[in-house]
Predict the structure.
Amino acid sequence: MVGNVGLLILVSVALLAAQSLDRIVQDKQDVPEKSCKSCPTIPPQTTELPVEVFQVLDLPLSIHEAALVRSDKTVLLRLSLGNSSDLKIIGLRYSLVSIDSRSQVQPLVNRIEGFSLRAYGMKTLAFKTPITLKPKDGERLLLMIEQVIARESIWEVVKAKDAFEAYARGDYSVVPTVLRVANQVDAPPGERPVIYLRKN
């Protein structure tokens, strides 16, 4: 009699477990599938190539991080910038070179890019102009800002090419100087310098 009671309890537990499992399966089948709008989007695969930066300390714009970002067969330059001036920065000109394992310097890009960075502000941005690049093993990438543009002023690195090439070769003794001039193109009309002509 005791054996029959034990068998009955075992069968009852097995039936309860089977019924619970059937209920779980039924509940999962009753849940409607999510629509495509609620499905998580998978971002395209991207790869990053780090870029070394030659900082020019007298410029009002500094680079905290630089990288070439490859996505969908397009390579874009991404920079994290800091503005140390009391003026809004509206653009820059930069040079990008590659340095091979034999320390040979190959110019890649010299380009002007426009953007907006408030006074004493920081921003990370990726320029939309693509860069043609075929990276090689053992190759380094080096970037330098040659010009910073505000509406009122332009900061220009004097003999930027010479200083950049010396740094790329490992000669850090060449310290670039910066010349600041008035921006007579982008300055508001009321702030442009007045030019007086002498009458003979």
In short: The chain has one domain: 46-188. DSSP finds two helices and ten strands in the chain. The mean pLDDT is 79. Helices lie at 2-30, 160-168.
